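User: For my dataset I need records formatted as: sequence, then structure tokens, nothing else. Please produce one.
Assistant:
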Amino acid sequence: MTSTKTERRYELDWLRVLAFGLLIPFHIGMFYISGWDWHVKSQYLSDWLAYPMLWSNQWRMALLFFIAGASCYYLLKKQGKWQFYLSRHKRTLLPLIFGILVVVPPQIYWELRQDNALVNLSYGDFWLAYLSLHDPMFDNYKAIAGTSLNYTHLWFLCYVFFYGLALCFIAPGLNKLASNNICQKLLNHLSPSVLLLATPLYFVTTGLWLKDAPAWQGSFFYDAVRNLHYFTVFLVGYMAMAAPKLWQLIGQSRKLSLSLAPITLGLIWYIYSGGVVISEGFQAACNDYIWTLNAWLWLMVVLGWSQELLNKPNRVIRYLNGGIYCYYILHQTIIIVVGAWLTQYSLGPIAEPLLVTVATIVGCGLGYEGLKKITGLRLLMGIQSRQTNSLKSHSASHGSHPLRQRNWG
């Protein structure tokens, strides 16, 4: 696939919108799926919903971190280190803080209501108790640093903020590595099959190495395995832009990855249903590899085929890219508030999810249109005042409770 120095990485624009867009049906699904813990639940629960949700649950967040890393490459080139450093505070930290203080509390409020943990307490009184950090009401709901504060679905902003700060200091070394002759020769001789089949071994091995490390406790600083794995994917996204041969290799692997990914997905469904793939002695390691391989293959499918099918401009994608953070910040709160309210009225297993879906999409759209007109709120909701993404490539010749560690979502 050829490119020019002025070519825009339109596929990354598409992927950003599609990746964040996947979160809406996934989180609506979390409201209806049986056996998966979530903040609130509908009275209409489904067992079969697990199977389609397992498909995207394995790779959707990894895709977001890959895109974040790729975008940071171009932003660093455009802005320079210190402007990029400051922009991370504006672009991710401010929306995260605002989300924790204002957007997230309604989710916790309805969770406590459904758990019968609130007694005749108005939302205003609840919110003040939430902001007090240590009200006994939240003893069973503590999250960030053992306080009542929680970022729920906004954890991505926290992680990508710290990853961006780290990138300020390691980017020069990554750029040197990308242009190094040894690295270039390695990429020239690396086959798609090695990229697809051997890379998951890294994630499995490091997961086993850190199996006794602190696990997810609602805090960035107690998430050793996911931090290592997501930061790795973030760096791969950066390197895929810094070393275009890596991006090309991902594109070349698209047919092989698409041929293998449905097989691993079938094995995932089989294992999830209680099936055994290999004898007891190696069963855990085998299962971990299959789950991780499945996640990696689908990530490569999406990234590889995007180069072939999505490298073109689109007005709708361009419009949504300006407000994708706003949709992301709002969507789960709308799902929880509307869903928890509607499920009290026994509307049925068709009308209720349909209304929740429509309310979420319309609510996000109206929220974006209204909030982008207010300067202060536009900043706090991560809305871009104009299209600032400059995902332009250099010429190809110029040197792009989770289900254990196996679930990257």
